[in-house]
Amino acid sequence: MNGKEKETITSQHGIPVGDNQNSVTAGPSGPTLLEDVYLIEKLANFNRERIPERIVHAKGAGAFGYFEAKKDMSKYTKARFLGKAGKKTPLFVRFSTVAGEKGSADTVRDPRGFAIKFYTEDGNYDLVMNNTPVFFIRDGIKFPDFIHSQKKNPRTNTRDPNMAWDFWSHSPESLHQVTILFSDRGIPKDYRHMNGYSGHTFKWVNNRAEAVWVKYHFKTDQGVQNLPVEDALRIAGENPDYHTADLFESIERGEYPSWTVYVQIMPYEDAWTYRFNPFDITKVWPHSDYPLQEIGKLVLNKNPDNYFAEVEQSAFSPANVVPGIEFSPDKMLQARIFAYADTDRYRLGVNYTSIPVNSPKNASVSNYYRDGFMRVDDNGKGSVNYEPNSFGGPTENMTYARTKYGVEGHAGSTPYEKHAEDDDYTQAGNLYRMLPEDEKNRLVDNIAGDLKNVKPEIVKRQLAHFYKADKDYGARIANELKIKDLKV
Ligand code: NDP
Fold it and tell me: Could you check whether the bond before residue 456 is cis, i.e. omega within 30 degrees of 0?
């Protein structure tokens, strides 16, 4: 097209379309003919527009940007994107709510997802974070049950606080995250005014195969801001896409949101003797033990051109770690490194990494994977498709092998080894005690407001947990609920 002619609509086979207003019928009022192949193709395409929504984090918004390293971290990790001050790495971020469906309102009480894909020269590095530093459970085997309890009742298809609190009350390790969820931070103002935390512990490894443990913290430069409950409820009705619109519009205005990036670094050997089990994702590492060290800046400065292509089809996995970054024995992380790619193979198909937003941008892809549904690249052309081979195909390079680490104990279904100060209550209590008085009041109101609709035996079981975290915490909630006889 030279820009002057009007473009003609075509079928998906490139065949020009003569009429996009009237279907082909037998006479002006006659039935529609099967030979109207364009009508059939058009309807068939429309019927197939929806793909499975994510089982969690279904509602989201995303943007492109970059990470700029602040200093050379090669003392701790050989990850090249962290190896030089000033080095910039392009990235894509998807924010999300967790429990709601794709059409649900943004301003709900829910953790928020904060997933990053760094397009590094060693391949794509994904950090699949939340806006809270801890999680409700510490073992991935509980995840499907946990999510069922937070989503809709199988009979009524409505959210059911009995299910949610029943699960939490049977899972006291959730108390820390439940406290964050019902605090002011449970409803962020928007995606720009919240922090991101890896929650998980990762291993950083340097060129000498020396390892440390790290947790990431992305602190918003816009400041943490939250929505008062009444505002959140009103906005959920007025503009269910409030967070989505805010991110898009701020970037369009040139107000680029940014986050200062920190890590907590724990010496490798500390992990076995630290007062808490450091791999338990229901706990934080207190800053006083492992202070935050600034490593860079994340900036979002470009909106996607097409939501479906770039946001809905984006796929992240905590399994995508680049050389210099490895896994920890965190049991939630271990389950997630399987689950994310598995869900994306189901949702997008086995060749989902050829979708541009998911393709490495600064690294090439060389392997012997072939064929499969929607193989839309050249499928390796005529190159050799097995290895080892005599035809110059790519080979492994042992310099990229993961570091070896020791394991001990007996295989079996066992909980985490308890460290000296491990329990489900101390850190939830620390958080409660740290909150200013007005936030404590709102926390108690929010919890009591939800528990009012919950069966008494579940409420009592849960109240015992609040008491164990902090007597005042439990007493205030019981008082709001007018429960005197606790007998818990
Ligand atoms: P610190 O006093 O060192 O850290 C407290 C941290 O809590 C702050 O640095 C801030 O982290 C965060 N915070 C501040 N206000 C609130 C709030 N209203 N709601 C939730 N979080 C808030 O103590 P500890 O490291 O011992 O942590 C005490 C408690 O703080 C923990 O039990 C945990 O619940 C919470 N917390 C701890 C974090 C950690 O990594 N240690 C991170 C976030 C929360 P930030 O700047 O990241 O917002």
Answer: no
**Contact between 281 and 330 (Cβ < 8 Å):** yes
Torsion 185-186-192-198 (CA) sign? positive
439, 184 in Cβ contact below 8 A? yes
CA distance 111 to 314: 20
Domain borders along the chain are 9-49, 60-134+187-360, 426-480
Matching fold, domains 9-49 and 60-134+187-360:
no
The question of whether 419 is a catalytic residue gets the answer no
Task: Kindly compute the dihedral angle of the four CA atoms of residues 149, 150, 151, 155, in this order, to the nearest 10 degrees.
Answer: 40
Place of tokens 């492994």: 396
Domain 9-49 CATH assignment equals 4.10.91.20: yes
CA gap 189, 225 in Å, rounded: 5
pLDDT tens per residue, range 185-202: 999 999 999 999 999 999
DSSP symbols for 382-427: TS--SSS-SS------GGGSPPP----S--SS-PPPPPTT--SSHH
The active-site residue, picked from 20, 22, 57, 358, is 57
243 catalytic, yes or no?
no
pLDDT tens digits along 274-308: 999 999 999 999 999 999 999 999 999 999 999 99
3-state helix, strand, coil in the chain (%, to 5): 30, 15, 50
Distance from Cα 192 to the centre of ligand 1, integer Å? 19
**Structure-derived torsion over alpha carbons of residues 290, 292, 294, 296, reported in degrees to the nearest 10:** 100
Beta bridge partners of 89: 67
Q: How far is the CA of 176 from the centre of ligand 1 (A)?
A: 11
Does pTM surpass 0.90? yes
Q: Output the residue whose Cα is nearest ligand 1's atom 37.
A: 284
Q: With contact defined as beta carbons under 8 Å apart, do 451 and 477 qualify? A: yes
- The type of residue at 276 is F
Please give the DSSP secondary-structure letter assigned to residue 88. E
Protein residues with CB under 6 Å of any ligand 1 atom: 133, 180, 183-185, 195, 217, 219, 224, 284-288, 427, 430-431, 434-435, 439
Residue 442 CA to ligand 1 center (angstroms) comes to 18
Assign 62 to helix, strand or coil: strand
Q: How many CB atoms lie within 10 A of CB 246?
A: 19
Q: Which atom of ligand 1 is nearest to the CA of 217?
A: 47
* Residues of the chain below pLDDT 50: 1, 488
With the C-alpha atoms ordered 463, 465, 471, 474, is the resulting torsion angle positive or negative? negative
CATH of region 60-134+187-360: 2.40.180.10
